[in-house]
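hey can u check if this looks right to u? its 190 residues, i copy pasted from the old doc so theres a chance i mangled smth
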Amino acid sequence: MIRKHLKYLTLIALFFILQGCKFLGYKNLKNGVPSNDFDINLIPPAPNYSNISSWIEHPNKEKKYARLPKNYIDSLDKSKPKIDVFFVHPTVYLKGKNWNANIYDQKLNKKIGNSAIKHQASIFLGIANIFAPHYRQMHIHSYSDLQNGYKAYDIAYSDVKNAFFHYWKNFNKSKKFIIAGHSQGTNHCE
């Protein structure tokens, strides 16, 4: 009986994972794949985490993407949480000529906010202060082109590491915290 339920739960989970990939646009990856090899001279400028604009979600930002579900009222939502979450979003950079995303690409940032932050980081809303950095995420194709992918990964990881140390030094103030991520974000958190 338990095996039967586990089988159905596995199928349901697989369905939602595939639907999530479809939602984020993982279909038709042939277009928009970098045609050149990784070149350190072509990487976009690094984020400066002392600027609020280098964070996709931050307690001090006016525009927030994290949302409670429609018609849901959470009595804790208005309080000042005593715990933080450092959330590293998944790969949303699916099309582009470079191996690393430009954090100043407004179209990409909006896509990150309206997908990963809104539908994933929002789980922490009301119970934690959400700190989610922009980072020069590696192109999705980096997972299949390891020669270029490892180099692009290192750039992305250095941003996440710098963001975390900036958070730790300037915002944590000895609070408990959670490190969370999804997909590429999980790789960097590990």
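The beta strands are 55-57, 83-88, 129-133, 176-181.
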